[in-house]
Design a protein that fits this description.
Order of helices and strands: HHHHHH
Number of helices: 6
Radius of gyration: 14 Å
CATH architecture: Alpha Horseshoe
CATH topology: Serine Threonine Protein Phosphatase 5, Tetratricopeptide repeat
Number of domains: 1
Largest sheet: none
Shape: globular
């Protein structure tokens, strides 16, 4: 046992692999799970900047922004993410984002 929290373990792995989008996604989800939506938003935004073709980041950032009552920001990020998912043929992700977008419009 390392004694480190899951979040701390992910941060250590990210130090070794700073460009790994899945690790950054996991870190953002840890923030969200801990109720730190502001921290989650920051990490999701960093992830999108580093890996703009990672649809789950757009979806979860949209959800997190919605929880923060930042609906205009949520709509904007979802509108950005849907075509990226569609272009990749990830219709499941595109559909989930479209449903979320519809629910906040």
């Amino acid at each position: 046992m390392t004694g480190k929290s899951r979040r701390e373990q992910i941060e250590v792995m990210l130090a070794d692999e700073p460009n790994d989008p899945e690790l950054r996604y996991m870190l953002a989800m840890e923030h969200a799970s801990a109720g730190d939506d502001a921290g989650a938003v920051r990490v999701f935004q960093e992830l999108i900047q580093a890996a703009p073709n990672f649809p789950p980041a757009y979806h979860m950032l949209g959800r997190t922004l919605q929880r923060l009552n930042r609906n205009a920001d949520a709509r904007a990020i979802l509108q950005q993410g849907i075509p990226i998912a569609q272009k990749q043929g990830n219709l499941h992700a595109a559909g989930e984002m479209a449903e979320l977008l519809e629910s906040i419009e």
